Each structure stands twice: as structure tokens, then as C-alpha cells.
From TrEMBL:
GO terms for biological process: amino acid metabolic process. Residues 49-412 form the Aminotransferase class I/classII large domain. This is Tyrosine aminotransferase. It comes from Glycine max (Soybean). The modification N6-(pyridoxal phosphate)lysine is found at residue 258. Keywords: Aminotransferase, Pyridoxal phosphate, Transferase. Its cofactor is pyridoxal 5'-phosphate. Belongs to the class-I pyridoxal-phosphate-dependent aminotransferase family. InterPro entries: Aminotransferase_I/II_large, PyrdxlP-dep_Trfase, PyrdxlP-dep_Trfase_major, PyrdxlP-dep_Trfase_small, TyrNic_aminoTrfase. Coiled coil: none annotated. CDD domains: AAT_like (cd00609). GO terms for molecular function: pyridoxal phosphate binding; transaminase activity.
Length: 425
């Protein structure tokens, strides 16, 4: 196991130095699972159950459930026997129309089916966006902390990554001065994630407006990752970046995964928010269409279910999800107050994860966030993600989309871990 820890350390150190990563969040979490001590027991001699607060998969809990109407929509599409063949490469027409109408509810203009392309989850939408913009000498501005898939996609496409910081003291807002300093004539996009992963932030209308104005000023477009769209439970409502599509062209990326609690279905979208028509230039449209000819989308019957899913899901389901996330975020923040070595600078207001600062000066034999997470997994059978994996050394990402009992128990074990490793005064 030691060699595995060394490997992940080497890969993550490479991530920091080169701004690209050869390790994924799932890869790190797998190594953490492997490090769990099979003989680790609780006080009563029973083997401790594993508590994972590292993976953003709400289906792993008993708290979040996919609504019946969603499953019925898929069953109806499958049993109709009309959707066993290939879908058009851009996606099934009725699915594209339904997604365009769904997203247009929150916009000051109407999207058309031609603005929407169906992808295998938001991950494929990320890869498409980077691939579409790649050219010799290109660079892309990415948030730190952020989602490492962007770095991986950029590395494969030969696109230089330039990181701008998110500011924890300002609710993880974008450092707009840094964006202006980093951008040049080869900058192809500014990427944002809202609601934020891994920070749990939600951007205000005013801040999004300033992001749009900054992007316009430096002459680039915005990639807006909204996979956690509408999962906002704080004082700020979710505002899609596409609202500012008239100021700057926006590529909106999203999926059914989080809001409908179906991450394994891998049904996402890549959408051009561009009422001014930049993306409607024939060469741009053809480039996008030809690239989608190379891709395989989600299963046709899943696409066929989209109109029914969007039309028939009741608002009470969404409200319950929001209430549950608010409740589990509150539990997490309250428990953190009793763990001196970690500090939450900003209470999460959206998504399913949060970032907390690790105070190594209070720990006796912990060298960094990676060491903390591997020893925690081995000693307490609790999995959390080292912050270095998302670009922020000596921070931790905690996923709070968990059963309240497991979340509380996990945080108590982290407290016990701290007490065991606390520096002696």
C-alpha cells in the first residue's frame, strides 16, 4: 500500500507543478479505500463500517431518491420499442427541444433545439467544450480549487491551463483581477462552476454579471459548468450564466445527474447560449456537428424519456432535495466547529460539497492533506478528499450529501482522529 500512497503523492505533486493531472478524484478515492485497515474495530470490537464523504454520488445514501415519474418515463420509452436504434449524433430531437425549453425558463431569451447537444453526462460535455476550443498555443482559465477533469481534458488536447484563484474570504468568488492578468490573445475560454464544486458556493447575479463583463473585456467566452444547477439552499438563488449571453457567448454544461439523482444515467448537455449569433457562424456550427459525429451519446431510450422527466417531476421533489442538502450541510458545519484542526471559512450554500482548511500546526505527525486523508482512512475508515486533488494544498473536500447519521458519525471519528494526533503543548 505504501507504493500506492507514494504514487498518488507523486501524481498530485505533478498536478501542482504542471497544472495538469494524471490522477482523477475517483482514482484517489480508490487508493484511499485500499488503505483502510481491515482489522480496524470500534470500541466494541466490531469492524468499523466505512463512511465515505468523498464521492459526490447522492444515490449512495438513503436520504436522496430518484422520483418514480423519472423511472416510469424511462420504462415507458423502453417498453414502447421505438427507441432501440441510433439517435442522431446531436441527440434525439424531442430531448433537445425539452432541454432547450427547460433551460429557457430562466433566461431572457429562448433557446432553440439547435443550441442543444446531448452528451454522456457533464464529463463528456467538458471534453467537448475543451476539444472545440483547442488550437495551437491556446490557453484556458480554470478555477483553483476546481474539478480536475478540466485539467485532464486540456492536457489531452494540448491546451495550456492557467489557474485563477477563488477567494474563500469572499464566498469563493472569482478573482477577477487575476483573470484579467492571466488572459491574453490566446485565451480561448474562462471556465466557472456554479453552484460550486468543490466549494459549495453560489454566485450572485451581480458577480456573474462582472464575470461576463470581464470575459468580454479580455476577449474570451465563458464555459459555465452548471451540473449542480438549482441545487442552491442559501440566501442566493441559482442564476444561470446564460442570462448574460448577450454580453459574452456562454457554453452551458449540465446534466440530469444531480438534480434528478441519476448520476449513473450519464445524460448531459452542451448548450450554446449566444443570442448575438457568434456560434451560429457556419464554420463554428459545422465544427460542433462534425465533432459530435465522432461521439456516442447516451442510450436512445434514456434520451426519449427526457421530455416526460422534465414535464412530470413535481416541484415538491426538488424542494425536498434542497431541504435535505441544507440539513446535512448544517450538520457538517456544526460538527466541524468541534474539530480544532479544520476550519470552514464559508458555509456552503449549494451543490453537495464544501472545502475546509486544515491547520497542520495543531497536528503532531501529519505532513499534509494527503497524509491526513490516508491516515484517517486507515485508522477511522472515513474517506474524505485531499484538497490538493482539486488544486488547493492543505485543504480538504467533504461531501455532505450523506445520511445524517453517517455524516455525524464520520465527523465524530474525524474528531477522534484529531485528538489522537493533536500536537502536545
Amino acid at each position: 500500500m505504501e507504493s500506492g500512497v507514494v504514487a498518488v503523492n507523486n501524481n498530485i505533486n505533478n498536478y501542482e507543478s504542471k497544472a495538469t493531472s494524471t490522477i482523477t478524484i475517483k482514482g484517489i478515492l480508490s487508493l484511499l479505500m485500499e488503505s483502510i485497515d481491515d482489522e480496524n474495530c470500534d470500541g466494541g470490537g466490531s469492524k468499523k463500517r466505512v463512511i465515505s464523504l468523498g464521492m459526490g454520488d447522492p444515490t449512495l445514501t438513503t436520504l436522496f431518491h430518484t422520483p418514480n415519474v423519472v423511472e416510469e418515463a424511462v420504462a415507458d420509452a423502453l417498453q414502447s420499442r421505438k427507441f432501440h436504434g441510433y439517435a442522431p449524433t446531436a441527440g434525439l430531437l424531442q430531448a433537445r427541444i425539452a432541454i432547450a425549453e427547460y433551460l429557457s425558463r430562466d433566461l431572457p431569451y429562448q433557446l432553440s433545439r439547435d443550441d442543444v447537444f446531448i452528451t454522456c453526462g457533464c464529463t463528456q460535455a467538458i471534453d467537448v467544450s475543451v476539444a472545440m476550443l483547442a488550437r495551437p498555443g491556446a490557453n484556458i482559465l480554470l478555477p483553483r480549487p476546481g474539478f480536475p477533469i478540466y485539467e485532464l481534458c486540456a492536457a489531452f488536447r494540448g491546451v495550456e491551463v492557467r489557474h485563477y484563484d477563488l477567494l474563500p474570504e469572499k464566498g469563493w468568488e472569482v478573482d477577477l483581477d487575476a483573470v484579467e492578468a492571466l488572459a491574453d490573445q490566446n485565451t480561448v475560454a474562462l471556465a466557472i462552476i456554479n453552484p460550486g464544486n468543490p466549494c459549495g458556493n453560489v454566485y450572485s447575479y451581480h458577480h456573474l454579471e462582472k464575470i461576463a463583463e470581464t470575459a468580454k473585456r479580455v476577449g474570451t467566452i465563458v464555459i459555465s459548468d452548471e451540473v449542480y444547477g438549482h441545487l442552491a439552499f442559501g440566501s442566493k438563488p441559482f442564476v444561470p450564466m446564460g442570462v448574460f449571453g448577450s454580453t459574452v457567448p456562454v457554453l452551458t454544461l449540465g446534466s440530469l445527474s444531480k438534480r434528478w439523482i441519476v448520476p449513473g444515467w450519464r445524460l448531459g448537455w452542451f448548450v450554446t447560449n449566444d443570442p448575438s449569433g457568434t456560434f451560429r457562424e457556419p464554420k463554428v456550427v459545422e465544427r460542433i456537428k462534425k465533432y459530435f459525429d465522432l461521439l456516442g451519446g447516451p442510450a436512445t431510450f434514456l434520451q426519449a424519456a427526457v421530455p416526460q422527466i422534465i414535464a412530470n417531476t413535481e416541484e415538491i421533489f426538488f424542494e425536498k432535495t434542497i431541504d435535505n442538502l441544507r440539513h446535512t450541510a448544517d450538520i457538517c458545519c456544526k460538527e466541524i466547529e468541534d474539530i480544532p484542526c479544520i476550519f470552514c471559512p464559508y458555509k456552503p450554500e449549494g451543490s453537495m460539497a464544501m472545502m475546509v482548511k486544515l491547520n497542520l500546526s495543531l497536528l503532531e505527525d501529519i505532513s499534509d492533506d494527503i497524509d491526513f486523508c490516508f491516515k484517517l482512512a486507515k485508522e477511522e475508515s472515513v474517506i474524505i478528499l485531499p484538497g490538493t486533488a482539486v488544486g488547493l494544498k492543505d485543504w480538504l473536500r467533504i461531501t455532505f450529501a450523506a445520511d445524517p447519521s453517517a455524516l455525524g458519525e464520520g465527523m465524530r471519528r474525524i474528531k477522534s482522529f484529531y485528538q489522537r494526533h493533536a500536537r502536545k503543548l
